[in-house]
Amino acid sequence: MTVKFDRMNRRQVLAATGATLLAAGAGGTDPAMAQAGTTIRQGYQTNIWGMPTYYLMKSGYLEKRGLKTEDFAVPSGNLTMQQMVARQVDMGTYAGPSFIIGHDKGGLVAIAQIETVGATGAMVVRKDLGITKLADLKGKKIANQTGSSIGNIFVDQVGPANGLKKGDFQEVRMDVNNMIAAMAAKTVDAMINVEPYNAIAEAEGMGTIIMSLDKYDKVPVFMAATPDFVEKNPDAIVAYLKAWLEVKRDFKENPKKVSEVIYSFFTSKGYKMDPKTFETAMGRVEVDPGFPNDLVPYLTKHAEVLIQEKKVSAMPDWKKALRPDFMEKARAGS
Fold it and tell me: Is the pTM of this model over 0.70?
């Protein structure tokens, strides 16, 4: 496979470089290989949210079904969403707010829920400041990956509910993978971040989690596809989701194998994590590929906020935005 970085600055490229060559196929055939040889331009984020997708690509389960991938690595899922709207990437994962924006701007379609990650998102404050409440961050510098799902949820919903409105703090825009260095240099006072960076900040004694997102939102992460890819490659999507069901089995039955693959990803990027810190970060992710039947009320709530904030133009037609039929076919044939 090949790796491409479109519309990314040098910092983002350096952060993502190295998530490359995927494992060779495991051989064998699959009944759903009608579109064998299909190449998927797969986007994924280099934080913990993207690691199930990284494991999928390393597993060999896609190659077994005649599918190939081009790997598009970015620091945050909203960047993958933007690439998909521009039709530079075919598939990628991100949480509800980014998915809704992507559907509004580019007709993107959800084909599965991959994981829930609410426990991975947090407001982390420099330990030396002794701050314990969001309201006490007024006037402080807070690092935020502006436009990301976690950023939108904290800024639009969690902050105001806890006495911290927009304008109360100084937003410092940066990628999530640069926030640890900014905390260490004391150029920011707090960060809205995800794993494994929160666990690293705690382990190194520089940060304290004062608000975890799972108290407000379980944060399902969706695998989305462009409508063009869906229209042209329905059989490939079913085969792709069958591979995800095998990944689900590995996460449940062979966690040691999964952990070794993901841990090697972060250590290859220069992150110094002891196994206990990594275990803490991974323990805040629940990987369970499927398609729950209660998503519409949850997504509608987020869409209402995004409409109010003028980030999307209208409430999505969920029958067009959500496509559970592909997962149903994958399960039936697995």
Answer: yes
